[in-house]
Amino acid sequence: MMSSLKTARFRAPLEGRALELFEIHRTDIYKRMDRLFAVLLLVQWIAGVGVALWISPLTWIGQTSRIHPHVWTAVSLGALITFFPVALCAAWSGAAFTRHTIAVAQMLWSALLIHLTGGRIETHFHVFGSLAFLAFYRDWRVLLTATIVVASDHIVRGYYWPLSVYGVDVRSDWRWVEHAGWVVFEDAILIRSCRQGVKEMREIAVRQAETESSAEKKHEVLVNSIDGIVWEATAPDLRYRFVSAQAARILGYPADRWILEPDFWKEHLVAEDRDRVLRELGAHLQRDEVYEMEYRLRDAQGRPVWVRDAASVHRTPTGPTILRGVLTDISERKRQEEQSRRSENRFRTVVEQAADAIFVHDLDGRLLDANELACSALGYTREELLTKSLFDVERSVPREHLLKAWRTLVPGKPVTAEGNATRKDGSTFPVEVRVGLLESEGDVRVMALVRDISERRRLDRMKNEFISTVSHELRTPLTSIRGALGLVSSGVIGALPEKAKPMVDIAAKNCERLVNLVSDILDIEKIASGQMVFKIRPLILEHFLRQGVEANRGFAEAAGVALKLETGDVDATVMADGDRLLQVLTNLVSNACKYSPRGETVTVRLSRRGQRIRVTVQDRGPGISDEFRSRIFQKFAQADTSDGSQRKGTGLGLSITRALIERMGGTIDFESAIGSGSSFFFELPEEKTPEPSSAPSSRPRLLVCEDEPDVAEVLRRMLDREGFDSDLARSLREAREYLVRTPYAGLTLDLALPDGSGITLLRELRQNPATAKLPVIIISANLDQNRPALTGHAFGLVDWLEKPIPEDQLRNALRRSCPTTAGKRPRVLQVEDDPDICRVVAELLYGIADVVQADRILTAWEKLKQEDFDLLIVDIGLPDGSGLELLPALKRSTRTPIPALVFSAHEISPRTKNLVNSALLKSKTSNDDFVERVRQLLGRGVAPPAATKT
Amino acid sequence: MLRSKIGRMLLLGGLGAFWLSGILWGMREQMIWGREAGAVGKPARSWPGGSLLTPPSTAPVLVLAAHPRCPCTRASLEELAMIQTAARGRLRCYVLFTRPEGCSDAWVRTSSWDLALAVPGVQPLIDPEGREAQRFGARTSGHAFLFAPDGSLVFSGGITRARGETGANPGASCIVDFVNGKAAAASKAAVFGCPLFD
Hints:
- The structure holds two protein chains of two kinds.
- Chain A is α/β, with parallel strands linked by helices.
- Chain B has a six-stranded mixed sheet with strand order 3-2-1-4-5-6.
- In chain B, α2 (71-87) packs parallel to α4 (111-118) and α2 (71-87) packs parallel to α6.
- Chain B is 40% helix and 17% strand.
- The model of chain B has no long low-confidence stretch (mean pLDDT 88).
- Chain B is of the alpha/beta class.
- The interface between A and B is large, with 41 and 44 residues.
């Protein structure tokens, strides 16, 4: 079944490509066999002549001989038999007539050869061999023709000359059949073989056609899957031989037109491109194997389509030059290029017409581009400017700073700063620079927009001067007016007429308003210009709010509103300017009171919101209308009352309030409902109490109680120089927390702390047995004011110091109060003959050790015997020898080994360094290094130098 | 196009016919030439008295005249070999190789001589100037004479069927039949070969 199914398609009539392939194959066989037989016939002719010459070269009559007729027969008859079919092979190879003629000739050659060989039985095999050879034609008809020739020969000769065929002179009508029968027998086999061969050829043709079809389909799919027109053409005539189907999609023309119309491609070139393209093509054909061109072709709608033509040239020795390539639609790319070009032009125009100077440089500051304004502003030509770096323009900022700043830029986040630009002539002018990062195709560039702010600075100066002048010129008379009106209104200078008093009151109130307005305007201006100074310090909000509420209680009472404070359990500290924060609170409370009906309550509430502290001022007023909500923080914005009138105020309060809160790092907002009142609240980040340092240290630790950061910083540095570690408490509360956690060697105490007086803490310390003896140094801004509170009490103070802190007094106080070791200051023996060095060392070590000096080895030796020292500082060059001579005696002369430090003016050898704990060269050692080294040797308790070991 | 195809076919057909005709004519001429028998003399009815050969006594004797260089002689000798095979030793043969006047024995001792020498029961002899052959009446190479034991001539003629062609032939059949005691179909046959004498 399978075999029959498999072969069924081979039995079906061939058609299409299979038939074509079969015919080609068959014709090829015919032609090949024709050529073979042509050669064979020639060979046979030569062989026939040879056979005749060999077997019967001469014929004799007696002793006379001549050429045997067989020779002539072989030559002439053989030629006749041979040359006609050979001529047919040359002229008409593969034709049926040719092969049939060949068959006839071949069988005639059999007869001739048999004749020439005298009928030898062996020669008869030529017949059978020829038939077999003819079977290679795979055309059974050829065999038939050959058989007919053989049979005819037997029939004719059997009839006319039976003796030559049968050996008897008797004719036989059918005896030829016996002879021909063997030929027919062979024919049967050969014909079957021919048919089998043809069948196989059919099968091969079918399979090949199927393979071709499959390959063609794949090829077609592949070619059509390419996003472009695949083409093949001859050159230089540019006749297209193949164009893929994509032609229809890309240009709207079927592929056939390219092939059928000779100049299709040329005619569809856009006119402007034609000459160039043809010229370029000609050049490519001359020299190139592979080339690319870009040009436009018109599509079916007449629109130009940009294409990229990538092709290769194939030159053949004999045939035409072949071009093969792919046309790709690049319209989109061209469009984008055009857009990019236009964008670039627009950008260029914008850059050149910009009101600011624009520089583009790399991250190393090398200038890459600048607009015209940049050049003219600096006095360079463009060519000159592009040879410079930005450091030639901006010389006021250190190079390293700029390099670092550029490298920290983030794309999309420009940075603005001010600086100075330097002109070519060396003059400078102030600039505001806005710097941003440009990333393009992997390159990182910096774009700087530079604006000359000379005028702005001048205007700022003018404005500040104006403000200062206005401030003074307005406030001064206003103050006078207010003061005068106050005196008049109060009746100090005499009673006013009844009718005049209201007028004076009106004048006083409005004067007050003017004063407030001027103050507010100046405040706004100061804040906006950054001139307002904020003294940021820790602020305990509960304490602050209590004070603030009390400060505003009078205003509330005057408005007929109760003022209530709710702090909850919130114990929080924020970093803020107390005065400004009070201004904020006052504004909010005053607004709340202004807009609250009489008898209502305004509540000030303290609450915590995560890491932020919120202060809310809530009223029970009419609420804020929707149309006013968006303007509420704007300048001169005031909400209308229910009767349409405006409340008192300048309209700047909330604007100032918001600016103040934001400068202190906070936020402000409100919630309101018509008829239910409003809640204004601000939030500030909570300031956490820092943990005391847990780093182990051998130095004594003091607690600094100081709320002013600058003072605290200075004080802590002083303490550090004197050999103390310190913690900072910015309030009484923090101080109490520290004191609970950490045992301190002493305390510096500012009397004016945010949450109370330092005296309170002092009392607490003295009442606590653990801290009753704790040394305390009072540091106060106003000692005289606080002195009465301190005297008369057994506070056990070490000292009272007034700010600014005198360092030497502090040092002395520390020395008295806080020894650096447990009950004992280190003692250092300095063996030095130079008195100046001695004085310097004594001064340097004053804060950390007691220094005993000896100028001779012997003196030092005696002191070592009699006293205890913690450290030996020794010079090598002494009048009575080398200070190193003391080293072996350190062990014997002291009960405990002490470290040794060589402090010499001479170069210290490695051997010497090995003998001591440390060695310093006088000329190369700074004071700080010396003190630090001494501190280390005193603090580590290091083993004595090797020389003292036993 | 069709016209040219028909014209071409006619041309080729004519050429083919012409070609075939020439071949057939040539082959016919060859056939005629091949069938052309050689001259025969007057054969003796009985063993010639003047022959130098030993006359038959108890077995038949075959005498074959041969031109030593005639190509057809070879066919006759091959047929003689077949005859001797069929005669199974009951036939004594003499092959008289004519030596023309002025030629040496070497002229006679050709491959035909060697072939005759190789056939069992055959004695090749050099026949100076063909005198012996003439006694028997031979004039053409390949003429065979069969004598009965009593000396009577049984067969005279050729033992090939055409010039230089081996294969079944009446002469050979006659000789074989006689030697084997069968009735001979013919007493003479055409002789195909080269003339022995100028």
